[in-house]
Amino acid sequence: MKMPFIDLKSQFKSIESDIRKRIDAVLEHGQYIMGPEVHELNEKLAEFAGVKHAISCSSGTDALLLGLMAKNIGPGDAVFTTPFTFVATAEVVALTGATPVFVDIDPVTFNIDVEELRKVIADVENGTHPLCKDSELKARAIIPVDLFGIPAEYDAINAIAEEHGLFVLEDGAQSFGATYHGKRTGSLSHVGATSFFPAKPLGGYGDGGAVFTDDDETAKLMQSVMIHGMGEDRYQNVRLGINGRLDSLQAAVLLPKLEIFPDELVKRQQVADAYSERLSQIPGVTPPSLPEHCTSAWAQYSVLSEKRDAIQSALREADIPTATYYPIPLHLQKMFADLNYKQGDMPVSERCAAQIFSLPMHPYLKEEQIAEVCQVIAKAAK
Ligand SMILES: *Cc1c(COP(=O)(O)O)cnc(C)c1O
């Protein structure tokens, strides 16, 4: 059965006239940069996430960068994050001149392991971490990643950060709409960052992202960094910044999508439940497990199996799309070769990278499609 991995067409059909109306309005007023749609979106995003300030920006990558730059993270600073994530998480750290320091993941949630985090922070503070050999490193920030849509363990992470005076920047690129103890992502730490890349739970028709915070001063700094470090007016540049704005056209697309997003989150959960019910009966296949105090945005529905390669071949044979997030953990990527990590340094991430695969996941997935995907997996896992 042919089916899309992510079904943007069905979603478009359901809100086509709203999207076209919104885009037409932008074409009429012509304020393509920082138009009224951007301000309206920021207000609605802040309300949705339950924070004082939401600032939409050009991508999830730039959202992370805004958070780091606003806090003056740079050379000599250690930023703790996981290697089992999209490259952007650690790439932005290196772009500021700071050093990404990897911490292995929890094997169940795939999010940062808080006990490991404690150890690695202590190693950096004591100067015993291998990365401290050639240069002095100061522990500055933690970037927890809410992988596949499930929030990281923020109560513990925030407590560790408080104890060590660290800045916490949530990489919520995959978790917009998820909750942790009833609170939405974006509101769970000092600053939250998310992405509106088309394939994310809330996606535009191009690149986009947002940062969230309750802190007035941090919000002001991120807004300034986003517009070339602008001061009181546009031609006063008081700090190093970037060109990081969201287009009015993307805001126009995101506004109607945000309206149906709560309903889509419910449907995503139903799809995940339908998958899990079937897959939990197949030996040798481990469906995702959601901590009781969390809901997920289900950016990906990812499964572990030692027979991953055989299962993926069978799925492709049956015309069912499947993807591998992520085949190479970041500590083994060439981009970070100068950090001198080696195979075996992050055993949980490495094992997950060898066993993980993702299945079609979107709110418009039908029961019979889910049934077929699981049938193919059951046969291939034998
Ligand atoms: C998608 C993603 C990003 C980057 O978002 P872009 O909008 O593509 O720049 C960062 N971190 C994670 C975990 C992501 O999945």
TrEMBL record:
GO terms for biological process: polysaccharide biosynthetic process. InterPro entries: DegT/StrS_aminotransferase, PyrdxlP-dep_Trfase, PyrdxlP-dep_Trfase_major, PyrdxlP-dep_Trfase_small. The modification N6-(pyridoxal phosphate)lysine is found at K200. It comes from the Bacteria. Coiled coil: none annotated. One of its GO terms (molecular function) is transaminase activity. The keyword Chaperone does not apply. The active site is at K200 (proton acceptor). Keywords: Pyridoxal phosphate. Belongs to the DegT/DnrJ/EryC1 family. This is dTDP-4-amino-4,6-dideoxygalactose transaminase.
